[in-house]
Amino acid sequence: MMASIVGRRLLFSASVLLILLLPLLSAATDVEYCKKGADYPVKVSGIEISPYPVARGKPATFNISANTGDKISKGKLVIDVKYFGFHVHKETHDLCEETSCPVATGDFILSHQQTLPSFTPPGSYTLTMNLNGENGQQLTCIIFDFSIGVVSVADN
Fold it and tell me: Are 42 and 133 in contact (CB under 8 A)?
């Protein structure tokens, strides 16, 4: 009986530890389209951020799962970041640097890696990502939130 109680406590402790550590490894993030009800040619099914929360001064990877019905030869990825509603950062990337081009019809992943400066304030951020095709047409536009943790390289 004592072994059974110890076994259950150990299992419970291991389960709690796993639940606490999983969010630190990566997190699937809810995503919204910029225009509700818009029929974008590129559909985004999810975003995974690793590590989560993002650590200041360390690389973070944003994997965006998407699907397209049309081949995409080239394009631009425009990223706009807000902190408490205030614009703090904007950058543009060549689509072919974030995924293999040409993008064939079907499922694909945009993978963006970013290292934030160690002085970046911790907290909640909102990221808007526009994907524009080779003629500037909007292929998709998404909005999602992410968090930057308190610990940074300088803190370690």
Answer: no
Q: Checking phi first, is residue 106 left (phi over 0); if not, alpha (psi -120 to 50) or beta?
A: left
Q: Identify the CATH assignment for 26-155 out of 2.60.40.770, 3.40.50.11190, 3.10.180.10, 2.30.110.70.
A: 2.60.40.770
Helix (H) / strand (E) containing 9: helix 2-25
Q: 88-134, pLDDT tens digit by residue?
A: 999 999 999 999 999 999 999 999 999 888 888 999 999 999 999 98
Contacts of 60 (CB under 8 A, 6+ apart): 49, 50, 51, 54, 113, 114, 115, 116
Quick one: DSSP state of residue 57? T
